[in-house]
Write a structure and sequence with these properties.
This protein is an alpha+beta fold and 71 residues long. It contains one helix and three strands, in the order βββα. A three-stranded antiparallel beta sheet has the order 1-2-3, covered by helices on one side. The radius of gyration is 15 Å and the shape is elongated. The two termini are 17 Å apart.
Length: 71
């Protein structure tokens, strides 16, 4: 692997995410980002109710696992 100027292997990726709330609604956004370039490889957005937070978390885990498998 080639090295980026900050000495991390190129192609290394991380998950970045945010959430927004409005009343009882929640939106979770996750992005798979390449460290060297900052390029967003994939992004996913999930909407639901705050009382479904654990179900949203389970869905997000499945989606992220899929992103990592196919990225």
């Amino acid at each position: 692997a080639t090295l980026t100027p900050d000495w991390r292997p190129s192609g290394t990726r991380f998950i970045d995410g945010t959430y927004q709330r409005l009343g009882t609604q929640i939106r979770i956004t996750a992005r798979l980002v390449e460290i060297g370039s900052g390029r967003v490889i994939r992004a996913v957005k999930l909407d639901g109710r705050r009382d479904e937070l654990f179900a949203l978390q389970d869905r997000l885990e499945s989606v992220i696992a899929g992103l990592l498998t196919y990225a």
